[in-house]
Design a protein that fits this description.
two-stranded antiparallel sheet; about 75% helix; about 290 residues; mainly alpha; single chain
Length: about 290
C-alpha cells in the first residue's frame, strides 16, 4: 500500500486527504476551480450575446424563429441605462422583491412543517396529501380571478399568487426528503435512547434538509414566475408590470430588459437560498465532497 511521507505534503495548493482516503482539493485548488468555472460561464454568456447580436442585426430566420423584430443586445443595454437613471427602477424592483419575499416566507413557514408532518405520519398523508395534489396542478394564473375575489386589495392577491407558486415545490420536496430518509438511522437513534424530539432534531431534520433547501430554491423560481403573471394583470408597480407595459407600448427593448431583470433577480434569490442552505448544512456538499 502506498504511503505519503509527512514532508511530501505541503500547505497551499497541494491536495489533502479526507477521512475516506480520497484526495480533496486544498484552499488554493478550490479557488482555482472557482475562477475556472467563472471564466467558462462568462465566456458562455458572451457567446450567447454575440449570437444574439448577430441574429438581430442580420435579421436572420432560423426555421420558425425570426429575429427581424428582436432588439439586439446593444439596444437592450441602452434601455437598461435609461431605466437605471430613472426613479422607476427602484419602485419596480422594491415592489416585486417585497411581494416575493412576503409570499415566499409564508409558503416556507407553512410548507416545511406540513411536509414534515405528512412525511412522518401516514394518517396525515392520507388526510392532507390527496386534496393538496388536486390543487397542485392548477397554474398560478388560474388563481388570479379567485384571489381578486378573496382578498381586499390587489397587493394581497399578488402576495397570495406568489405564495401559491412557492408552496407546492417546497411541500413536495420536504415530503420527499423525509420519506427518503433511511429508517435504520431513526431506529438506531431510538435504540441509543433518543427521544422523539431528539430524533427529529438530530436525525430527521438534518437528513431531510438537503431536499428542503432544493425545494426552497425551486419554490423561489416558481414564485417569481407566479408574481410576474399576477403583476401583468393586476399590478401597478413591479418588474412584471413594467414588462407588460412595455409590450402594450410596443417598446421591444424594454420587454427584453424586463425579462432579463426578472431572470437576474430570480437567479440572485435562488443563489441566496443556496448560500443559506450551505451554511445550514456544513456536512453536505454536492458531489459528496465534505468541507
Amino acid at each position: 500500500m502506498n504511503t505519503l511521507a509527512p514532508d511530501s505534503i505541503s500547505l497551499g495548493d497541494r491536495e489533502t486527504i479526507d477521512l475516506a482516503g480520497a484526495p480533496r482539493r486544498g484552499p488554493a485548488g478550490r479557488w482555482r476551480g472557482v475562477v475556472r468555472s467563472g471564466v467558462v460561464r462568462l465566456l458562455s454568456i458572451a457567446a450567447c450575446l454575440g449570437l444574439w447580436q448577430l441574429a438581430s442585426t442580420k435579421q436572420l430566420e432560423i426555421g420558425f424563429l425570426r429575429f427581424a423584430n428582436v432588439p439586439p443586445p446593444t439596444e437592450v443595454a441602452s434601455a437598461g441605462v435609461r431605466l437605471a437613471q430613472s426613479p422607476k427602477l427602484i419602485s419596480h424592483v422594491r415592489s416585486s422583491v417585497l411581494r416575493i419575499f412576503a409570499g415566499f416566507a409564508i409558503a416556507a413557514a407553512l410548507a416545511v412543517p406540513l411536509g414534515m408532518i405528512i412525511g412522518r405520519s401516514r394518517v396525515a398523508g392520507n388526510l392532507l396529501l390527496a386534496p393538496l395534489e388536486v390543487l397542485r396542478p392548477i397554474p398560478a394564473v388560474a388563481w388570479i380571478p379567485l384571489a381578486i375575489l378573496m382578498f381586499a386589495t390587489a397587493e394581497q392577491s399578488m402576495i397570495y399568487i406568489t405564495f401559491i407558486g412557492a408552496f407546492f415545490p417546497i411541500l413536495l420536496s420536504t415530503v420527499h426528503g423525509v420519506e427518503s430518509l433511511d429508517r435504520k438511522l431513526v431506529f438506531a437513534s431510538m435504540t441509543l435512547g433518543a427521544g422523539r424530539l431528539a430524533v427529529f432534531r438530530e436525525v430527521i431534520l438534518p437528513g431531510a434538509l438537503p431536499s428542503i433547501v432544493t425545494g426552497l430554491s425551486i419554490g423561489m423560481g416558481t414564485s417569481w414566475f407566479s408574481l410576474v403573471t399576477a403583476e401583468m394583470i393586476s399590478g401597478q408597480f413591479g418588474i412584471g408590470y413594467y414588462t407588460w407595459e412595455a409590450y402594450t407600448l410596443q417598446n421591444y427593448p424594454d420587454i427584453v430588459l424586463g425579462m432579463i431583470t426578472i431572470g437576474l433577480l430570480g437567479m440572485l434569490s435562488s443563489a441566496i437560498i443556496k448560500q443559506l442552505g450551505s451554511r445550514l448544512m456544513p456536512w453536505f456538499q454536492i458531489g459528496g465532497e465534505v468541507t
